[in-house]
Amino acid sequence: xxxxxxxxxxxxxxxxxxxxxxxxxxxxxxxxxxxxxxxxxxxxxxxxxxxxxxxxxxxxxxxxxxxxxxxxxxxxxxxxxxxxxxxxxxxxxxxxxxxxxxxxxxxxxxxxxxxxxxxxxxxxxxxxxxxxxxxxxxxxxxxxxxxxxxxxxxxxxxxxxxxxxxxxxxxxxxxxxxxxx
Length: 181
Known about the structure:
It is built from six helices and seven strands, in the order E-E-H-H-E-H-E-E-H-E-E-H-H. By secondary structure, the chain is an alpha+beta fold. The chain has a three-stranded antiparallel beta sheet with strand order 2-1-3. A hairpin with a 2-residue loop joins strand 1 (3-6) and strand 2. Helix 3 packs antiparallel against helix 5 and helix 4 packs antiparallel against helix 5 (124-154).
């Protein structure tokens, strides 16, 4: 909102109109129109780019936190076992529970519900592979989060902050190294 100076005092436009009731001032008076009255226009301060950048980064980091939380609650991936599986903490607990149960009872196979709600008969060894894939997937989610956070923090202006694409859906399927398998 523009401000105006007259006799070492600062006024808003309504105050200026009250000060000069005999003068019809336009909605946005120009400096040339006000000069005969001895009024000067006080320019709006330049926006604080540092504060704007910090605000943009804070907003984008909040978006990142929300997207990461969703990925932890809804993530999934293609397992090397040939079907899609949930990549969530719940899935990790379920697999751990099945492993514990099979090891404790000596069972050789158990039913496992995949991402598409299809029941699959899996072996102890397959569950161990799945457990490792879930661990790797979780590590991949965190690595992606850290990568995106670094990109947001390194951005030098608000446009660069906005250009950081927050996406966890493009992660590749987790793969196990020879040592892990």
